[in-house]
Amino acid sequence: MAHVYANNELVDMLLLYGECHQVTAEAARRYAQRFPNRTSQATPYGGNRRRVLDIVEDDPSISTREIVRQVNVSQDKVWKTLSENQLYPFHNNDTRTGLYNF
User: Which domain of life does this protein belong to (predicted)?
Assistant: First the structure.
């Protein structure tokens, strides 16, 4: 049976989701920090999401295939985690400053 949240919990979740610019992992992290006494519907994959994000933060040019090897999860989960957090592998941000790598 699905967990039923109280109205005030749903409002808090939505407000945090907006504050975090719709980045699900960040909103979940802040929710857990701000409301430690509330129950969480964290999945077993939750810890691996953090690992995926940490790996990408350390090396933004890493391939999804390499992340799959390091974390031992499916490539679908890696792609979903990246897209939920508005991260896209192999996008070189130097083009914004006019620097091109040829």
Answer: Eukaryota
